[in-house]
Amino acid sequence: MSRGAAGTLGPRFPLPRCRGRFDLVIADIDGCLSPEGARAMDVASLAKIAEHNRLARERRDRPVVTLCSGRPQPFAEAMCKLIGNLEAPCIAENGVWMYHPGENLYLMDPGITRDDLRVVRDASEWIEGEFGPRGVQQQPGKSAAVSLYHPDTGYLRSIAPVIEAEFRRRGWPLRVSMTWLYINCDLMHVSKGTGVDRLLKSVGVEKDRVAGIGDTTGDGPIRERVGWFACPANAQEEIKREADYVAQREEAAGVVEILARLV
User: Fold this and answer.
1) Which residues of the chain have a pLDDT value below 70?
2) Which residues contact residue 12 at a Cβ distance below 8 angstroms, ignoring those fewer than 6 apart?
3) How far is CA 156 from CA 116, 180, 205, 253, in A?
4) C-alpha to C-alpha distance for 22 and 142, rounded to whole angstroms
């Protein structure tokens, strides 16, 4: 176990309890705080979320907002700073990284081995050789996963079963899933769920003191580990059915609406 600030066994980054129902909100990025497609961010709404986090630090009357995303660590780091979260770790790359923006600590999942990293490199090379000439791009910045993009989402969906079958044939322990616009290829034993588990253990906050925000079935692991879950209006119908609240507005404006219910 990690040691707390006083040198005793306990959470590594203890989060102060707030006076409200929740101490922490864990939000997805794409489709929640930022558009996944080629549109500008809603800077006005993100500024309101940053103000929420400022008041959370100063008044302790509302939960701190942090992130759990499939995006590479540098993107998650920038988003944490944009929304004013310096207190709570965030999860990036679907569980590969836990990053603490206040401490500037980069912590890879300790269950990821050299063999795992070799498998990811081999898979990336095979995908590049097989699908790179057909216009499939690999998202830069990932350390232990591969994310694929093609402007024709229908084509991308059509190759997902081919990639999954090849991984099985080669015995590569990689999971294949789709977001709105990407194919994610992640290590089987690493996920948003394992990332949230690490995050909650590190801050010492119980499930019933945590709220979550997501927009796709890929955010199901967040939903399973929080006491209350909400979606912006643009969320997939499947995950909306699992939500305690669905906002009337989309993306970051919807997140602002959700946060107003938690003050």
Assistant:
1) 1-9
2) 2, 3, 4, 202
3) 25, 11, 39, 29
4) 32
